[in-house]
Specification:
- The protein has a single domain (10-184, 206-397), classed as MFS general substrate transporter like domains (Growth Hormone, Chain: A).
- The protein is mainly α.
- Helix 2 packs antiparallel against helix 5, helix 6 runs antiparallel to helix 17 (340-356) and helix 13 packs parallel to helix 15 (310-323).
- It contains 19 helices and no strands.
- The chain is globular.
């Protein structure tokens, strides 16, 4: 009994709790744009006919910021420490989101979503890296699952806040939550593995080391592309849910905020399930393959749903979330693939590179949508892109290591 209490104390230690709360705020701010996209653009006097295209543009700008920020924060995490990223990134995106409440044009909106994207890029990778390094091997999977499950509830709170307050106030609240979290961060301690590596002469945070060795490069690309279906689902199917609802002739009003909320509740359920299943099966890769398969099945449920009512549409968003509920495993796998001197670089760049793929995915979707035309263009364009992401993910899965029981106290030479 005493050993069990000691184990639980480690699992709910300060680094795990603060990383989970940090990811909660991160998801709130990241998904808030998807939720308030239409009302905020309407308030900026964007014509109805341009809401889809302007929304795509702003999403692409935000995701480009995540791509840039992933590089900046990942390298900084290995050079200066995990805590420097946890402090710096949250300060940047909190201030950017507060400023977002004052925008008066789409151009200003785009600039601030880019800056916020840079800030948002650092939270998850640094948090997962820190938790992976401070917890014992047997608890690592549980710890990262807790971080993801708590964090993903940020989408639910963002949707609730958007219904209670104006979109500008929703941005102010997100920024304020981030600034409050900085106070809690003071009590977090640095990773012992990082401090040990810092005292050696080994190169830290050298991003180009991932490209100078074929084995490292293949693993890095594999880590990125196993997550491709996740952000196709979030960035296209869920973000543009009102447009898909119209193409599918769904009866009743469909809200992007509610679609995001139900998808992220499903994602939290999936993340908790995949984390516990992974611990039970003692495998990361086999569980990811199961969830990618489920995601493919749920694409068809969403795009060819047999019931054309809003309640079933939201149910489809929920099961899509469950299918892509290997997000925590995806980031944990990336952290476990590489040594301490490159771990933050990989764990931070990987999720943000895959978020950044929303840019080419939305461009490809737009091309197919316009080429096919009409409602069929929306449905079949999404289906084609979605199937391609799944095929790429399955191939990428064959290129990475099984890391369930790996000791992380090593470096890349």
């Amino acid at each position: 009994m005493e050993n069990q209490k000691h184990t639980l104390r480690k699992l709910f230690s300060v680094p795990v709790i603060v990383a989970a709360l940090g990811y909660f705020v991160d998801i709130y701010d990241l998904l808030l744009f998807s939720i308030v996209r239409r009302p905020s653009l309407v308030a900026l006097q964007v014509p109805e006919a341009e809401l889809f295209s302007k929304g795509e543009f702003l999403l692409q700008v935000q995701m480009t910021g995540l791509l840039v920020g992933g590089l900046i924060w990942g390298i900084m995490g290995d050079k200066r420490g995990r805590l420097s990223v946890l402090f710096g990134s949250i300060l940047l995106y909190s201030l950017a989101n507060i400023a977002n409440g004052f925008v008066g044009s789409v151009t200003q909106y785009a600039v601030l979503r880019f800056i916020a994207g840079i800030g948002l890029a650092g939270e998850l990778g640094a948090g997962i890296t820190l938790v992976s390094e401070v917890l014992p091997t047997k608890l690592r999977g549980y710890g990262t699952t807790i971080v993801a499950a708590v964090g993903l509830m940020g989408a639910v709170v963002a949707n609730y806040i958007s219904k209670q307050f104006d979109w500008q106030i929703a941005y102010f609240i997100g920024g304020g939550l981030g600034l409050l979290l900085l106070i809690a961060r003071v009590s977090v301690f640095e990773s012992g593995m990082f401090l040990h590596t810092k005292s050696t002469q080994v190169q830290r945070g050298n991003f180009f080391m991932l490209f100078t060795n074929r084995v490292r490069f293949v693993k890095f690309m594999g880590c990125i592309f196993i997550g491709l279906p996740i952000w196709f689902t979030i960035g296209i199917l869920v973000t543009f849910s009102p447009e898909f609802a119209r193409a599918l002739s769904i009866e009743g009003n469909v809200s992007a905020g509610d679609a995001v909320m139900f998808a992220y509740i499903g994602l939290a359920v999936g993340d908790m399930s995949s984390g516990f299943i992974s611990q039970a099966m003692r495998s990361r890769k086999r569980v990811v393959s199961i969830f990618v398969s489920l995601t493919l099945l749920f694409f068809f449920v969403y795009l060819f749903m047999p019931v054309r009512e809003s309640w079933f549409f939201y149910l489809s968003c929920f099961v899509l979330g469950v299918g892509i509920g290997y997000w925590a495993l995806f980031v944990t796998i990336a952290a476990e693939q590489f040594g301490t001197n490159l771990r933050s670089t990989v764990a931070t760049t990987t999720p943000n590179f895959i978020r950044g793929t929303v840019v080419p995915l939305t461009l490809g979707f737009k091309f197919l949508r316009d080429s096919i035309g009409g409602s069929e263009g929306v449905i079949y364009g999404a289906l084609i892109i979605g199937v391609i992401t799944v095929l790429i993910a399955f191939y990428a899965l064959t290129k990475i290591d099984e890391t369930f029981a790996r000791d992380l106290d090593f470096v890349e030479e």
